[in-house]
Design a protein that fits this description.
The chain is 39% helix and 19% strand. By secondary structure, it is α/β, with parallel strands linked by helices. The protein folds into two domains: 31-151 and 308-330, Response regulator (Rossmann fold), CATH 3.40.50; 153-306 and 346-364, Response regulator (Rossmann fold), CATH 3.40.50.2300.
């Protein structure tokens, strides 16, 4: 049985990892071209040059990550440079930022890799003895970087799928899948999409490819039932992209009753398209920003898997500063090829067998505005 109180196992786990990160720090002592210098702090020794490279500087998730890194720079005596692509999909913007970090003589890079198109630039950085940590998006292959701090995106998607299947209560599922890209392969994209399908109890074909599963069949999650996948449309992780993608899906089939979205801006755009068409559907998503949690409370999003970008940035910053001063390298979570920073499903509609927290509890640990 799932409970939505501060006493749930899921919430206690989330709180525990947050406290663990804070304890580790206590024990330890945007656009391209913009930078902020961390003041001398508990890090000790000479300042360490670190570049944080996000996918863009407007998505609330990456804005929160940037703010967290800037706040932690002083604690670790880090000279921080913040850079990003111009928008989702801008491989070249990230490549340029990596090259700039090498030329500047930085000790390390924190990056949310856009796609495998930046892998060769990351290799150049590591060949130049920079320690490279991926945040949020594990690269493919995982050993492209030294380590990744990220949400288990497969599990995030599965939580969404399990919840959705339970809510359908055996009714047919007419599904729209609003992904990130259609022209790039990114682990966060296929892991959330495929995880959602697995949570629904729908067989996937290639676990690293979106859109190749059977378009009709039976889902086995919850009470089970028939499913139809109407579309896989890319929304680029943005609200306007989500709206356009949802409009395309509705044009194919106006009877969609379940919408998976790669993130919460996409979900908001999808909801706008549904409202304009006088339609309603269950919407599930991933992120858990404060705005997204608010969308759960208002009923726009049925459930969202909350992740923790501030923790990713904090742990990454601390790791590079420690390594640059001769400390030990961080280790991956047992059984995984990355360090799992945790996930909790936020919803106000209970589903038996699915751990979650309420929107009120999610609001206490959310990020962004």
């Amino acid at each position: 049985m799932r409970h939505n109180t501060l006493q749930t196992p899921a919430f206690r786990r989330t709180l525990a990892v947050t406290l663990a990160a804070s304890t580790a720090l206590a024990l330890g002592a945007c656009n391209r071209g913009s930078s902020s210098d961390g003041a001398s702090g508990a890090g000790g020794g000479a300042k360490v040059g670190v570049t944080l490279i996000t996918k863009d500087s407007t998505n609330p998730f990456f804005v929160a990550m940037q703010k967290g890194a800037k706040a932690d720079a002083g604690k670790n005596n880090v000279k921080l440079t913040v850079a990003s692509g111009k928008q989702e999909g801008d491989d070249q913007g990230q490549i340029t930022a990596i090259e700039d970090a090498i030329a500047r003589g930085d000790k390390g890079i924190l990056i949310t890799p856009m796609s495998d198109g930046v892998n060769s630039a990351i290799k150049k950085a590591r060949d130049a003895k920079l320690f490279v940590i991926a945040l949020d998006t594990p690269p493919d292959p995982a050993d492209t970087v030294d380590i990744t701090f990220a949400t288990n995106n497969r599990n995030a998607g599965k939580l969404d799928g399990q919840w959705a299947a339970a809510q359908l209560d055996g009714k047919p599922a007419v599904i729209a899948l609003l992904d990130l890209f259609s022209d790039k392969i990114v682990s966060v994209d296929y892991n959330r999409d495929q995880g959602f399908l697995e949570g629904m109890g729908i067989d996937v074909a290639d676990g690293k490819k979106n859109g190749d599963e059977a378009k009709t069949g039976k889902y086995t999650g919850g009470k089970g039932g028939d499913y139809t996948i109407v579309c896989n449309e890319a929304g680029q992780g943005a609200e306007d992209g989500g709206r356009t993608a949802m409009e395309k899906c509705l044009a194919k089939n106006p009877n969609i009753n379940l919408v998976y979205t790669i993130n919460e801006p996409t979900a908001v755009g999808a909801n706008a398209a549904l409202k304009a068409a006088n339609k309603t559907a269950l919407i599930v998503s991933v992120d858990g920003g404060c705005a997204g949690v608010g969308s759960v409370k208002s009923g726009v999003i049925g459930a969202t898997a909350q992740q923790y970008p501030l923790k990713m940035a904090t742990l990454g910053m601390e790791a590079i500063a420690k390594i640059a001063r001769g400390g030990e390298k961080p280790q991956v979570t047992s059984g995984l090829d990355f360090f799992d920073t945790g996930v909790a499903l936020v919803t106000d509609k209970k589903a038996d067998g699915v751990d979650s927290i309420s929107s009120d509890d999610g609001a206490k640990i959310c990020w962004g505005n």
